[in-house]
Design a protein that fits this description.
The chain has three helices and five strands. With 129 residues, the chain is of the alpha/beta class.
């Protein structure tokens, strides 16, 4: 576990929305409670690696408190948005990331998570990979 330097989740509201829209190329994570704490503390290796690689490529990284107002940022380019919740949100550059049913695996999907993810649209193939 390592501190990723994200600090406490920041809030987006109508008063400060333009600061987020006008930020340099940013990878925004939206989370609450345990997910926000776990991300900030570096407990999720998958996301810690994603953050490290994004920063190495020149991206800013921000942790935003998921209270709904952030949805106004969807489609703002060149940003990417990763929601760490089960609530589906659709738009350009939006992804959903939550731990899967199997420890160590994650859903990372443009549509939604778990039983609502895009995996449900694929035909079942019982053959081993």
């Amino acid at each position: 576990m390592m501190d990723l330097g994200l600090g406490a989740p920041r809030r987006v509201d109508v008063l400060n929305l333009s600061r987020f829209q006008d930020a340099p190329r940013t990878l925004y994570f939206y989370a609450r409670g345990n997910m926000a704490e776990g991300l900030a503390a570096g407990r999720f290796r998958f996301l810690a690696r994603l953050i490290r690689d994004a920063r190495a490529d020149g991206w800013e990284v921000a942790l935003i408190e998921d209270r709904g107002a952030w949805r106004q940022l969807i489609g703002t380019r060149p940003h990417l948005h990763i929601s760490l919740t089960d609530k589906p949100v659709y738009g350009h550059g939006v992804f959903h990331a939550v731990p899967s049913y199997l420890r160590g695996y994650w859903f990372f999907d443009e549509v939604a998570t778990r039983n609502n993810s895009s995996h449900r649209l694929r035909p079942f193939d019982p053959r081993p990979l």
